[in-house]
Amino acid sequence: MALLTALSVILLKVSIQISSMQSWAAMQSLTDAYLSHETALASRLPFSELVSTESPWPLYPEFSETEVAIGRYPGGREIRASLVRFREPDPNNLDLAGGSGTLLTNPARTEAWKARSVISYRVAGRDYHKARTILRVR
Predict the structure, then answer these.
(1) Exposed/middle/buried for 63, CB within 10 Å: 0-12, 13-18, 19+?
(2) Spatial separation of the C-alpha atoms in residues 13 and 21, rounded to whole Å
(3) Which pTM value belongs to this model?
(4) What is the number of other CB atoms lying within 10 angstroms of the CB of residue 75?
(5) Rounded distance between C-alpha atoms, residue 79 and residue 70, angstroms
(6) Which of the ends of the chain has fewer CB neighbours closer than 10 A, N or C?
(7) Block means of pLDDT (10 residues each) for the chain, length 138 residues?
(8) Could you give the CA distance from residue 137 to residue 112 in angstroms, rounded to a whole number?
């Protein structure tokens, strides 16, 4: 009887471990898909809108944090994650564009910004974070 109990406990632990690994793999797919959407959004956003004060990516050290739905469980319950966005100027941007570059170091007067999106989520009691950086230049 003790042998059967021990075996059932071991099988229960193995099945829980397998299902948590499947959850982790599913979350990887969902977060990758959501971050692909973020990359597309940052890439197609007009440059003037990206660098404006109303931008979805605020100027660092400011940031925007929102809770987003990245998918649904069977039965319709939402899978949620936290999304943080911010943008940073390239150090070689001219002063007006948030950098410390000069006409000597940046004669073409190019302007580059890094839009960053970080998604945070939890699987089986562990926290995970994924980030994407989108470089925009004009």
Answers:
(1) middle
(2) 12
(3) 0.76
(4) 5
(5) 6
(6) N
(7) 65 54 75 93 93 93 94 84 95 79 82 94 86 94
(8) 4
